[in-house]
Write a structure and sequence with these properties.
Layout lengths: L1 H7 L2 H38 L9 H17 L2 H7 L1 H8 L5 H25 L3 H9 L4 H40 L2 H10 L4 H29 L1 H26 L1
Helix pairs in contact: 2-6, 2-8, 2-9, 3-6, 4-8, 5-6, 6-8, 7-8, 8-9, 8-10, 9-10
Length: 251
């Protein structure tokens, strides 16, 4: 009973936790939106401009891939966020808070997601792309009607992985001034040695990750035509077996 009393009488949980929880969701939501908005076209460009792509541009692809994507991905997020404080202040008018932290979160996650998009599109069968081109489809039509629909389950899984990564990034952003559960864990769990707050925050972060992963997996399965075809074939086999069993019983 004393455990629950301590839990609901702790100001770090009853007062600070709801606000910081919403700040974490705000950071994940804003940065996730801009990551999808910018990272998806960037990943499509990386795939289309690569050697053997729909529109090969070796020099431009090398510059974007090696200079923009790889270098940004190589910088640890804590260092990246500190270095982007002037940019966050310029764009949002503040260098602290969840909105300002979303700038660094987005810039850190966009190259990561773009690389996952490129990998997903690369797995699409080249035979389907060639067939679409032979039938007179334009490059844009191939991208919108062949590449993206065929790679959609993998793209959803890639975005799910990116959102899970953003959850971890948001915790680090909180320590540097972004707010959210990371700041609460640092201020109460670390500096005040409040183990109860730290445990509660860990449970909440794990729950957020689990919800994101479950929803992403369900969406990926729902749009996967291969899963639907397998399920349909399984139902057809069960119907045939049941019909055969009925015939035997009838005989």
């Amino acid at each position: 009973m004393s455990l629950f009393d301590d839990l609901f009488q702790n100001p770090g949980i009853t007062e600070a936790l709801p606000e910081e929880f919403l700040a974490t969701l705000q950071m994940i939501g804003i940065s996730g939106f801009f990551t999808l908005l910018v990272g998806l076209p960037l990943g499509i460009f990386l795939h289309a401009s690569s050697p053997g792509g729909l529109r090969p541009m070796p020099v431009t692809n090398r510059i974007v891939s090696d200079v923009v994507v790889n270098i940004t991905r190589s910088i640890p997020f804590a260092i990246l966020m500190v270095s982007l404080i002037p940019l966050a202040r310029l764009l949002t008018g503040s260098s602290i808070g969840p909105v300002a932290a979303s700038v660094s979160l987005s810039i850190g996650a966009i190259p990561f997601f773009a690389r996952l998009v490129e990998t997903s599109l690369r797995d699409v069968s080249s035979g389907k792309i060639d067939a679409a081109l032979v039938m007179g489809s334009t490059r844009l039509q191939v991208i919108t009607k062949v590449l993206i629909p065929e790679a959609l389950p993998s793209l959803i899984s890639a975005f799910t992985t990116t959102l899970v990564t953003l959850v971890g990034y948001s915790a680090m952003a909180g320590i540097i001034g972004g707010g959210g559960l990371g700041r609460l864990a640092y201020n109460y769990g670390l500096q005040r040695f409040d183990t109860m707050v730290m445990v509660v925050i860990i449970v909440i972060i794990v729950a957020i990750v689990q919800v994101i992963q479950i929803v992403g997996d369900r969406l990926a399965q729902r749009v996967d035509h291969r899963t639907a075809a397998t399920a349909g074939a399984g139902r057809s086999r069960r119907v045939r077996r049941q019909a055969a069993a009925n015939d035997v019983v009838g005989v």
